[in-house]
Amino acid sequence: MSLLCRSVLRNSRLSPLNVHLARNFLICKQAGSPAKKTCSVSSFINFQTSSAQLSATATGAHVLFGGNGRTVCFHIGANLTLPVCCAPALTRCGHYFHTSAPKKALPAPLILMVLKPLQKLAAILLGRSIRKWWVGLPDNRRKLMREWVLKRRWYLAAGTGLAMVIVALLLLTHLDESPVTGRIRLLVFSREMYMELAALTSEAHMEEFAELLLPVTDPRHQTVEQLVQLLAERNKDIPEVSDVPWSVHVVDSPNINAFVLPNGKVFMFTGMLDAVADIDQLIIVLGHEMAHAVLEHSAEQASLSHVVDLLSLILVTAIWAMCPADSLAVLGQWAKDKLTELMFNRPYSRKLEAEADEVGLQLAAKACADVRAGPVFWQQLEIVDTLTGEPTLPEWLSTHPSHRNRSSQLDRLIPQALQLRESCACPALPPTDPRAVFLETVRILLEKTKDQAGAGS
To answer: What is the pLDDT of residues 192-219, one digit of tens each?
Structure first.
């Protein structure tokens, strides 16, 4: 007998059980076969039910998917009809088959972070081996090697130049335009890769702060939730804002901190809520953190770090090959790491923070916040650090701009932000400028402090 094979259910979605058939589902029906004879199945199925049943009749085939006590039945015949309503499955028909949950590969950024120490170790071992090999050579062999390199120096220089051109071309193919600002930046990792890593990071943070998260009924959580939704609604014209499902988690901790992951998970610490003076300052802080996610700063910074680390492997190998002793090689590598940190990583981090300040102020302006409160927030933190004796690093040693520089930068951006706010049909601001009020308050406090000090003496 000849077999009649039909390819059905091509990449379809079963809405009752969220069933997705990832490949063709082949049901081979033997012509003229007796009723209720089970036919063969060759397929790959990706769905969340616990079992599935197949049966075929002379007139067609039935497919039953069962899970959690429910069954969805489909009739497949000459005329394909889906779906066919079924009662809860109490009757066995055909054979059962099971599928295992798909296993996702680790995100590429996470794999590279894990491999980074191994790469450095391999460079150290390679450089050390080259040094030992060179020291073990007889003097005549060393002389021959030097002569060989000297004769072919132009070929070696050309090869080095060609390698540098290839690396430059590879980097040029990974240039990308930053959202909102249009700045050209290097982006090695795709958005999808970093979203996978963000999902793992958010799960880790949820476990870390599980016992410290405020309930959704807490007024502080509701306030942050409303402000985040306001920022998302007023900036929905930006695809990177409207395409992200923003969610809020408030952590009961005195740390003055807040951060937003690339997948839209907002983590706000109660210490930050205590540090802001009003709702406008809180909106500006949230706008700054959301700007990091919108501009994909974490992926950009990881890309730069990855490229710098790969290129520095050549330098690490050279250090361990040329230094006469391991102690000197360790010292040379430490100096290289510090120079890389001070010359590349930290300046780039400060640049991204300044960009997030600018874009965050724009997001807050479109949400009708009083953007004049932005510089005041950083002036407040500067005074708090001074009063508490908090040690502050020089800006060139820090990953963030100083409070004073951030306040000055935001102050320069206020006129532009006010124009943007006005163009969004926001209500008029009060005539009293929060910056002037803050400066007057500080002046009065200083005068009172001087008077109290004079009276005490």
So the answer is: 888 888 888 999 999 999 999 999 999 9
Count the Cβ atoms, other than its own, within 10 Å of residue 206.
13
Helices (H), 69-211: 108-136, 139-151, 153-172, 191-208
Residues marked active site are found at: 289
Instruction: Determine the Cα–Cα distance for residues 435 and 378; give it in Å rounded to an integer.
Output: 11
What does the angle CA 37 – CA 39 – CA 43 come to, to the nearest 5 degrees?
155
Judge whether 237 and 267 are in contact, CB under 8 Å. no
CA–CA distance, 133 with 314 (Å, rounded to integer): 18
Nearest to 214 by CA among 262, 272, 275: 272
Bridge partners of 265? 247
The whole-angstrom separation of Cα 28 and Cα 5 is 4
Q: For residues 380 and 392, give the distance between their C-alpha atoms in angstroms, rounded to a whole number.
A: 15
pTM: 0.72
Dist. CA 8–CA 121, nearest whole Å: 54
Q: How far apart are CA 121 and CA 116, in angstroms?
A: 9
User: What are the beta bridge partners of residue 54?
Assistant: 63
Helical packing angle, 346-366 and 403-423, nearest 10°: 30
Measured between alpha carbons, how far is residue 310 from residues 168, 300, 332 in Å? 13, 16, 17
